[in-house]
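User: Predict the full complex structure for these chains.
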Amino acid sequence: MSEARESAIPNSERAALCRRYRLPEPVRVTRPTMPPLEKYHEYLETIWASKWLTNNGKLHEEFERRLAQYLGVEYVSLFCNGTIALLVALQARRINEGEVITTPFTFPATAHVLYWNRIRPVFCDIDETTLNLNPACIEHLIGPETKAIMPVHVFGTPCDIEAIQSIADRHGLDVIYDAAHAFGVRYKNRPIIEAGDLSVLSFHATKLFTSIEGGALISKTDAEKSRIDFLKNFGFADEETVIGPGINGKMNEFQAAYGLLQLDMIDDEIAHRRKLTELYREGLAQTPGIKVHQEVPDVQRNYAYFPVCVDADEYGTSRDALYDTLKEFNIFTRKYFYPLCSQFPCYTALPSADARNLPVAERVAKCVLCLPLYGTLNEDTVRTICAVVNGLCAH
Amino acid sequence: MSEARESAIPNSERAALCRRYRLPEPVRVTRPTMPPLEKYHEYLETIWASKWLTNNGKLHEEFERRLAQYLGVEYVSLFCNGTIALLVALQARRINEGEVITTPFTFPATAHVLYWNRIRPVFCDIDETTLNLNPACIEHLIGPETKAIMPVHVFGTPCDIEAIQSIADRHGLDVIYDAAHAFGVRYKNRPIIEAGDLSVLSFHATKLFTSIEGGALISKTDAEKSRIDFLKNFGFADEETVIGPGINGKMNEFQAAYGLLQLDMIDDEIAHRRKLTELYREGLAQTPGIKVHQEVPDVQRNYAYFPVCVDADEYGTSRDALYDTLKEFNIFTRKYFYPLCSQFPCYTALPSADARNLPVAERVAKCVLCLPLYGTLNEDTVRTICAVVNGLCAH
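Assistant: Here is the predicted structure of the two-chain assembly.
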């Protein structure tokens, strides 16, 4: 433990580097790009005039419509957050027992929504390059209790949707995508959220696109959207009819107003992040032991995150040591995702959680690090971060 | 059915009444009293300055502190809505299987959170006067699978907390109060939310006190509050430790700001509602077949709702007919609560849902009606509503 946290470069050298490159203010891994407050205020005036705060208000309606348009899909249901959207996605498909195959390399919400729907997660290993579910590992995990596959487009990189769909079709399984990272991502010029049966987006404040907290569930038919909209409002189909055990998943007008303004900013946000991503790639291209994501054919990325993999041997310093040392430079990164969901006490007893079944995920979780990336991040700051990462390399 | 919806007074008489008393604008059952927009804007300026939108921000912290102070309790955990707070309450106590005894005369959320926690609801009949769980009916429903009692302080009227606690203690059961209606209610000069093991408040826009959407879970120890706060944030105890299958139940800064401003207004809101309640009581005191709630000894009410019970025989018109007819007068009431949770398709197969076991609840659900009540409701409007209800009486 203490060894893994030590940096391989001498203290004196590190101190010199720190004097030169330490950032004047803490730089976090992300920061929301705020819309103009005056414009938000205009929306508030309409809320104050209508006195309608939540429950399918006018801004909610407008946001749902404009969001569907922007995303290029027909059916969007807004939620108070992405977790409740994912929870309702399973319920909408009546997946409430048995097993669902998913990735351990994800945010806890993915596994937890299975718990809430009475489902045993079956953790499946990931692909070293995409960091997503490895289709080659899925099929031998399918058993008589399997109901669905729930892949995650990690860091916005599309899963191998064709291979996954073909497995699902062969076995009659639903596919529900956790697309929390994949806002606006396109694959072969189609929205990635068209893949599978349902997809869920997250609009949390730390996301590329945000409605303060928030999320959306993308469905494919009128009937399914209706069912989802009932379920997110306690199951009410009308004042006197409750069609099932729903929940409160409603997005309020204040969130919808924020989301509407973000729609006007999202293309710029992606463009800025793309530029910064290119700077990072350039700045770290020659760093031994730092592996960065590259562009993937047929994929229009969203540049939501800038993850790197730290090869401790090549880089001369472990990921954990780099994470700690960067704090001294006022650079706050995230071990995203570490630990794996399969390592949480509540899931570790599952047979599929055995580390021996998840060699790639285990390895990646120990080396991954997300560097700061957000639209208002300064280009020079990115150059400085690269200089620090390069300077801390022991080779 | 059609019979029940018919009004007993002649059409011509009703038309005359309508010409005289029809309200110029629709009056809904409730309407939020908005804080001054300028004051809300001031909070927004601090949010824009900090760029901190959610996850335990400064306003969240301040709201939690000031709310605890106002309510007279020590431990408050804020939530995105009351339903998720109730869902987490059960999880916080590790109640995740077996049975919980609850009332069918409540909002669907009460029963649904049991579903989400893998618990079979056991519906127990209510008391005709308080409309709350009847303690005399609880004990014979307790079996080897019973884990807890989940009573509801319906319309803010305190449950018989002493009797319930004594049953719970005798059988070693938890008591979790759905206090969604009971903001600020005191019993024997103590906050009612001190009763039982945990209590949950709702701050939905339709509530007496609102944070747009929102809710709070009231606990009793440091350790319990910590556990709740972890669970509402996916189970994170720190960046790398997940203590259990949590959820996203976080209240954001925009909700907290709204809640803070409501704290400044709540005493006036209650005073206004009290005044209107007295007007209603006066106006309906002589109406045959319209039963209204009276003051209860030792109870400091919050005047959140004005429910009446319509005795179709005495009043000469059924509750359903009155509800429909009032719409013609631009008076929009609510059959709150109808139908009973035990009548939802998802619960109707439970043995305890049999109507024969719930005679009082069945009767009350068919006669209850909530009349418009909110702080900005005009006194003359209340007088008009009383005149209409009196005018529609067939006796």
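Chain B has two domains: 2-32+265-391, 37-261.
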